[in-house]
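batch_manifest entry 22 of 60
target: Secreted protein
source organism: Candidatus Yanofskybacteria bacterium GW2011_GWE2_40_11
requested by: lab member K.T.
priority: normal
notes from requester: please return tokens only, no post-processing; we will run our own comparison against the previous entry in this batch. if the run fails, retry once and flag.
--- input ---
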Amino acid sequence: MPKKLKIYYIALVVTLTSLLYSSSALALSLGTPFGGKILTYTPCTCGFGTAIVTVGTPRPGIFLYVPYTSKPYSYYFPSIGRWILGLASPTPMPCMMGVLPYCVSVGSYSPITMFGTSLR
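--- output ---
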């Protein structure tokens, strides 16, 4: 195989490989979908407005609501009894509880990146 053809072949393989990795990274960055009825809403007392949100079926989980980071759509606030649908980041964040300056982590949860809730 001529040297010029080898270089074109290697360039093609590198280009296709980088396209595959970049599209999979984009898919991962969107977050994990969740949705269901909000079962509990527990404020993190040292978290400046953050709260643990437990979501029931059909896509259950325990997530962290972070004001000014969790982008709200439709009815804007997660509260017990409402239905919620959204995306959560796969990178966990801690929920800190206690009285300042004596705060401890009660666990790490996936932060909500975007969500919408029902009216009731």
